[in-house]
Amino acid sequence: MEQFKTYALMIGLTLLFIWFGGMIAGQMGMIIAFLVAVGMNFYAYYYSDQQVLEHYHAIPVDRHSASGLYQIVSKLTHRANLPMPQLYIIPDAMPNAFATGRDYEHSAVAVTEGLLELLTDKEVEAVIAHELSHIKHYDMLIGTVAATISGAIAMLANFGMFFGGNSQERPNPIVMLVLMIVMPLAATIIQMTVSRSREFMADEGAAKMTGHPEWLQSGLMKLDNYAYQMTMQDAEPQTAHMFIINPFTGKDFSMQQLFSTHPTTQQRIERLEALK
């Protein structure tokens, strides 16, 4: 069922992108948008995981090089009936973590050195459970595709005036101007809504997987506190939705924070409190 929802969202966002291309440049715009969407979805599906791991200089580890982390993940995957994901450690002092991969057999969990140094074993277990919950519900593929198509819609809006199509195919200039403003905003809201709801679901899944909501509560409080004190090296807005804590939390207020892909830590802690 979760995989069906993932594919349904991919198709829905793709159709939205194609429709927008048609509104801007008629039939040719639809064709171009279709080809771009197919290419971007194909790339996102098969290669986005390795790209993001390489971007953050993630180092693969195993039971020998990171025995404590491996044991925690092994215990939780057995409990969640999931195959063992590939484990990575990111050489970054900011405590954070993310999961990636298109399905159970091609999944990975990455944690920063800062997270392993800051959190207790129980808190690390809760964070890993959160990431495994993302994997179990195909959240990372959904988030990647949503971010990809949202970015494509914004790109199409920025270059809308330069697309081909004759005057009969183009909509009224005022209508097109409105679309160029509204469509990227709508796509961002879709991405934001999807990501926030999935964060709540992953928190709940972690609480059930560990049986201790308070472990994740304390872990989130520590991560949030450090996010205001330091920034993550190489952090990119396009990948912010992947992390358990938004790596841009400590940045000055901006529109990017207004449309954050994460609910507030306080909201998440309150939701977890209700599970006790």
Q: How many separate domains make up the residues? A: 1
> How many helices does DSSP assign?
9
The level of helicity is 55-70%
| SS elements, strand count | 4
Radius of gyration: 20 Å
Overall, the morphology is elongated
* First-residue to last-residue Cα separation: 28 Å
Q: N-to-C SSE series?
A: HEHEEEHHHHHHH
Largest sheet: 4 strands, mixed
Structural class from helices and strands? alpha+beta
Mean pLDDT: 82
Strand order, largest beta sheet: 1-2-4-3
Q: Pick out the low-confidence regions.
A: 163-167
DSSP strand content: 5-15%
Descriptive overview:
With 276 residues, this protein is an alpha+beta fold. It has one domain (2-273). The protein is 64% helix and 7% strand. It contains 9 helices and 4 strands; from the N terminus they run αβαβββααααααα. The protein has helices at residues 2-55, 67-80, 113-118, 121-136, 139-158, 173-210, 213-227, 255-258, 265-273, and strands at 59-61, 86-90, 97-101, 107-112. Strands 1-2-4-3 form a 4-stranded mixed beta sheet, with helices on both faces. A hairpin with a 5-residue loop joins strand 3 and strand 4 (107-112). Helix 5 runs antiparallel to helix 6 and helix 6 (173-210) crosses helix 7. Mean pLDDT is 82; it is low at 163-167.
